[in-house]
Design goal:
The chain has 507 residues and is α/β, with parallel strands linked by helices. The protein is built from 17 helices and 22 strands. Helix 12 crosses helix 13, helix 12 runs parallel beside helix 14 and helix 13 packs across helix 14.
Length: 507
Amino acid sequence: MSTKELLRMTGISKSFGGIQALDGVDFSLNTGEVHSLMGENGAGKSTLAKIIAGVYRADRGSIDYEGKGVDITSPAVALSLGISIVMQEFNSLPDMPVYENVYLGHQDAYKHRFILDKANCIRRTRELLSLFDIQDQIDPMQRLRTLSVAQQQIVEIIKAVSHDSRLIILDEPTASLTEHEVEKLFDIIRKLKAKGVSFLIVSHRFSEIFSISDRITVLRDGRLVQGGVPVSEMTEQRLVHAMVGREVEDFYGAGKNEPCDVKRAPMLEVKGLDDGWGFLHNISFTAYTGEILGISGLVGAGRTTLVRNIFGIERRKAGSVRVDGRELPPGSPSASIRNGLALVTENRKEEGLLIELPIYINSAFAKTANDGRFLLDKRSELEDCAEMVRLLDIRTKNVRNASGSLSGGNQQKLVVAKWLLTKPKVLILDEPTRGIDVVAKSEIYGILRRLVRQGVCVIIISSELPEILGVCDRVLVMRDGAFTGDISTAEVNDEDIVRMASFGTPI
């Protein structure tokens, strides 16, 4: 690791509407190092990263870059200094092609100053995609919105790489990537690091942080707790304690191995499901009360397509879906909800919540639709929301506040609350802990385990193998639209799952 300092921030403070996001934070980054920034949601990590990238300006403090004092007043100024950021919320143009998303704004991508050199940009985009070995999966000409969330994340990352930046900030870069894609990303980071490129990574995934980082800085409540600790001197236990100020016990939810009072019985039965588009092939499985069932696989394996077909967002061509013995009509989410099926989608901000609207209104949507009402009973909805806030420990000062005021973990709890108010028999969650901190993850795991004890059938899609192995009782492994494994998590490890997901090889 290089010891030549690239960036130094001293006494950085920032507030938003009276809320102190950062309070006198010091931070440094060396040339050719990977420095990870850790902390709970709301700790100030993304705020500090956005100050470096020119998205925000600090209220107080100074920034030195390459040994000189700088005033980073905008993202354009940051780019001119060689600083790029990939934010958790995509900064993209979904109706435009991939290559235009990558190269719009590049001064050297234009002919005669204002005409985009299409052929050259397509060629260069294809070269960048080949770094991830996905040039055969993503066409530079296809519109961005046609890509999966994981593929859009990769486009955001290669956009940053395309600027030849000396400092690349990655805010939750692996939240929607599979293990294979994460390794591809880390290979690229290591190659660029060897060329002197520095990385600041904001992440909640401990295994990845310990795998790729040189140093770790921890923030808590906007203040520096531990600064620039070499990863060799850090343990997971020490890191958790630094982040939350206390020990977190039973991380994956109390009672995974305890007997369940609910009798194990079939609750969701899928037989011969085929989507008619070639993505799903004769899918059959049963999910039971008294267990948490996991669905694992690489991006493109068909996991999200499967649950969207089951729920009725996409219309299946063949096969049957039964909840508690009652068959669901194809292509009817409303019928699915009426019969006790609930789906927490992977993108909470686009499909799970209307973040500009109050918390209590968001919590009411699914129940109101299920009751067949068009107008909200405000008193009833406020009472329901208050009960969910208490039950799920959603941290908010006022349920009339906009849902966007909540931290990521509390937003995710709100999405779960919305569906719990429909009293589901089967709760399906697609990437339920994407982009949320360690404490919020643990709290959500505990909520799911309690629901199982109450008789709810819980199904989790996750790209995090530790989550699958730690939370789920059983796992179904998918590859190319079909299952390659159905096994107890007590009898399988991460290597077994990767082998089944990659090659279809049973253990």
